[in-house]
Amino acid sequence: MDDAKAARVAADPRYRELVRRRGRFTWALTGVMLVAYLGFILLIAFDKPLLAQPIGAGVTSIGIVLGFAVIVLAILLTGVYVRRAARDFDPLVAALRAEHDA
């Protein structure tokens, strides 16, 4: 892509809106993941006895379950992003590409 074409795409209001919406969405998902991960790490640092408590009569502790939940949350947030990108962002990118490549 040459500089003139890139400048035309960057000046397109639909492109600016796409960048703004996608950026806000990705920062929101990043915030959710950071809060979950940092919360888990802070629990490890400051409340080991809570995380060491077994669940029921078994040997699995609360810490294992919370660690697994952080991993599952990361996978779910990835799925949420992929679904939203395929539904909302990719069609806008395709429309912009079709218009500016023509």
Give a written overview of the molecule.
This protein has 102 residues and is mostly helical. Helices cover 86% and strands 0% of the residues. It is built from four helices and no strands. It has helices at residues 3-11, 13-46, 48-52, 62-101. Helix 2 runs antiparallel to helix 4 (62-101). The chain is elongated and about 65 Å long.
**Helical coverage, percent range:** over 70%
Largest sheet: none
SSE pattern, N- to C-terminal: HHHH
Cα-atom radius of gyration:
21 Å
**End-to-end C-alpha gap:** 13 Å
Give the CA-based shape.
elongated
Count, helices: 4
* Overall residue-averaged pLDDT value: 93
Number of strands: 0
Subunit organisation of the chains: single chain
How would you classify the helix and strand content by structural class? mainly alpha
Percent of sequence in beta strands:
under 5%
Which residue ranges are poorly predicted, with pLDDT under 50 across at least 5 consecutive positions? Answer: none
Could you give the topology of this structure?
Layout: H1 3-11, H2 13-46, H3 48-52, H4 62-101
Write a short abstract of this structure.
By secondary structure, the protein is an all-alpha fold. The chain is 86% helix and 0% strand. The protein starts with a helix and ends with a helix.
Output the keywords:
102 residues; 0% strand; 4 helices; mainly alpha
